[in-house]
Design the sequence.
């Protein structure tokens, strides 16, 4: 290092000043070096967390902290050709191969940034295929497999929710899907000019949001189904179910790499009668499926009008509380009066759904709580 | 804020650097943690379903005209000397967006001793060839005069001409109903291809096909004093439970109810291709002149259609 004895304007520095300047320069360089080092450290940490690993033959290693991956199976994906027009963050899961490297119809999630959200493959013969669209009384089965990567206790919850979309079609004879827009509160702040691109106007938004609330209220999720009877209603738990509750014996002690099946059933209750009646009720259509073991749970769900919008045209919510209350009190002499008060409102809500919603996304999101 | 700035200025250079580095580390840590969390916290699966639009079925006049043209408001039952048949035919239709099949319901009070039958109806048509050579097409043209319709009817039902003219007339009147074609109902906004070739103001003829409901077909009928009236079966559905019991309501004010099985909307669904449709029916009202006169009561009739599953 050069000995600084003079600085540019010609003044001579004292010994003290010289030492101080050297020290300052050293400190500045040291600090600079330290900053650079810190930046390098943090960018490498970020690089590590961007796990792009995808190769596997069974045991899936996740470098990002989640103790499991999900798998779906089957060759069929509902509405696959238009899926990207509704939500393009969902893509095909990573296809698995068997021991002989033959591809299987098994698709898994991974920890990388694109395969965390995957399309739901299902068996070609599985329930829940409605080429003309869903209607009241529709029902489906949602199956997936959980693959833990650590043995022991696996704590994860599965949350089901429904998102709704308005759609715009081409004007030609083909009448194909042009674009969709999700029905969210964001629509409230859009102007007529912005909405026009989607074929919407501000006065239609309220009905669209109502229709979405109604379909979220009318589609019921259950843990079990057998012989025309649903049970294990999930609606009062926010359509959430814990992994441990999906295990056959309830013992949460999993083996790494093993695949654990989870099946959840959904049903668009056809009429109010179907939702609230026992299987042997004369009010129930004889071919209808019933929820009778969960009747109390469903009544509680219907009574909670703040969280579950089920009835259209109710000017006073007391109508709901009073009438559902009568059913909860098993006052069977009044059943017909109750149904007369509410059944049209249930059906009118279905009509609002049919006239306002084009597509729904039935989503399952994992969470740790 | 100012105190902090003041404190900072009071610090020596070394301390300032230490403070700044510490602040930087903290900020960087704060950024790194949520970034790592975003990549790892959840997995998602999704299934996309479309929602079907609600069905649109209408009860209309015979060829999807406004239901006001389906007028059964007054029947001349004739007196005991009358030689006219004690029978009147009316044509109505179920029209609207395509459904593969539907159910028909019919309900009425019993103040008058009319007997009701419901038949599926066919338009009386003949096939003509339009165009020549390669472009020749066969289309169905409806008969538009009574004479031509009657002749066609005769050939259909009595090919070997056993009937006298009077017999032919009588059978024709009992089996065929005329209908004046009016504008399509404005409520039904769909294009109904079954209305093609029908000129407004012309008369077309419908012939009875399958009988869906015979005179005594009801879900809740019983015979009391030689009259058909309704049982208690649907009393609460009609009158509720407010202390108005079955025995307190006039027995003729209890409606008789009939429901069909599944009726197919079109004859050949595969070739029809899910277009909007019209399906015509004939309501045949008959009576016994000894039991009814023109000085009669009023009955209410209800006809409803809903989609089959």
Sequence:
């Amino acid at each position: 290092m050069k000995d600084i004895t003079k600085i540019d304007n010609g003044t001579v520095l004292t010994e003290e000043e010289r030492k101080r300047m050297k020290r300052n320069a050293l400190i500045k360089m040291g600090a600079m070096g330290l900053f650079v080092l810190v930046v390098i450290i943090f960018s490498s940490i970020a690089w590590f967390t961007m796990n792009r690993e995808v190769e596997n033959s069974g045991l899936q290693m996740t470098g990002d902290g989640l103790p499991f991956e999900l798998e779906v199976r089957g060759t069929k994906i509902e509405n696959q050709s238009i899926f990207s027009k509704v939500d393009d963050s969902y893509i095909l899961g990573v296809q698995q191969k068997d021991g002989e490297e033959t591809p299987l119809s098994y698709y898994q999630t991974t920890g990388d940034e694109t395969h965390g959200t995957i399309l739901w493959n299902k068996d070609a013969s599985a329930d829940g295929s409605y080429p003309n669209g869903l209607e009241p009384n529709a029902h489906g089965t949602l199956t997936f497999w959980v693959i833990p990567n650590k043995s022991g206790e696996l704590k994860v919850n599965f949350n089901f929710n429904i998102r709704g979309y308005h759609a715009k079609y081409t004007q030609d004879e083909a009448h194909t899907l042009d674009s969709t827009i999700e029905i969210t509160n964001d629509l409230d702040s859009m102007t007529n000019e912005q909405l026009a691109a989607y074929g919407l106007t501000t006065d239609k938004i309220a009905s669209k949001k109502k229709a979405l609330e109604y379909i979220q209220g009318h589609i019921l999720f259950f843990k079990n189904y057998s012989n025309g009877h649903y049970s294990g209603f999930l609606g009062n738990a926010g359509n959430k179910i814990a992994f441990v509750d999906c295990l056959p014996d309830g013992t949460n002690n999993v083996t790494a790499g093993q695949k654990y099946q989870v099946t959840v059933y959904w049903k668009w209750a056809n009429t109010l009668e179907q939702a609230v009646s026992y299987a042997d009720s004369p009010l129930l259509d004889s071919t209808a499926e019933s929820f009778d073991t969960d009747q109390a749970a469903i009544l509680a769900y219907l009574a909670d009008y703040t969280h579950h919008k089920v009835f259209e045209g109710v000017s006073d919510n007391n109508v709901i509380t009073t009438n559902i209350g009568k059913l909860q009190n098993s006052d069977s002499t009044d059943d017909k009066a109750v149904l007369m008060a509410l059944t049209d409102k249930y059906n009118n809500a279905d009509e609002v759904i049919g006239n306002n919603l084009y597509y729904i996304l039935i989503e399952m999101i994992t969470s740790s709580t | 804020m100012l105190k902090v700035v003041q404190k900072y200025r009071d610090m020596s250079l070394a301390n300032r650097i230490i403070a700044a580095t510490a602040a930087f580390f903290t900020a960087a840590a704060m950024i790194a943690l949520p970034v790592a969390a975003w990549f790892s916290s959840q997995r998602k699966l999704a299934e996309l379903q479309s929602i079907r639009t609600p069905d649109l079925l209408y009860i209309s006049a015979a060829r999807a005209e406004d239901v006001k043209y389906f007028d059964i408001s007054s029947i001349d039952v004739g007196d005991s000397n009358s030689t006219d048949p004690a029978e009147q035919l009316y044509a109505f239709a179920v029209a609207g967006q395509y459904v593969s099949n539907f159910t028909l319901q019919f309900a009425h009070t019993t103040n008058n001793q009319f007997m009701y039958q419901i038949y599926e109806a066919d338009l009386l048509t003949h096939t003509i060839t339009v165009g020549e050579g390669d472009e020749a097409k066969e289309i169905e043209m409806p008969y538009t005069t009574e004479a031509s319709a009657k002749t066609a009817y005769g050939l259909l039902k009595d090919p070997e001409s056993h009937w006298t003219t009077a017999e032919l007339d009588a059978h024709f009147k009992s089996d065929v109903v005329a209908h004046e074609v009016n504008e399509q109902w404005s409520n039904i906004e769909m294009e109904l291809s079954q209305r093609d070739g029908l000129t407004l103001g012309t008369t077309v003829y419908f012939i009875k096909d399958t009988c869906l409901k015979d005179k005594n077909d009801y879900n809740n009928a019983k015979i009391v004093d030689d009259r058909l009236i309704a049982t208690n079966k649907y009393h609460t559905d009609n009158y509720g439970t407010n202390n108005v019991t079955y025995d307190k309501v006039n027995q003729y004010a209890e409606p008789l109810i009939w429901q069909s099985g599944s009726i197919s909307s079109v004859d050949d669904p595969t070739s029809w291709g899910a277009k909007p449709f019209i399906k015509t029916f004939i309501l045949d009202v008959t009576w016994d002149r000894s039991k009814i006169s023109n000085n009669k009561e009023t009955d209410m009739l209800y006809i409803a259609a809903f989609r089959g599953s």
Summary: The helical segments of chain A are 15-49, 83-86, 192-196, 202-218, 272-276, 295-303, 318-328, 335-356. The longest helix of chain A spans residues 15-49. The radius of gyration of chain A is 30 Å. The first strand of chain A starts at residue 68 and ends at 73.
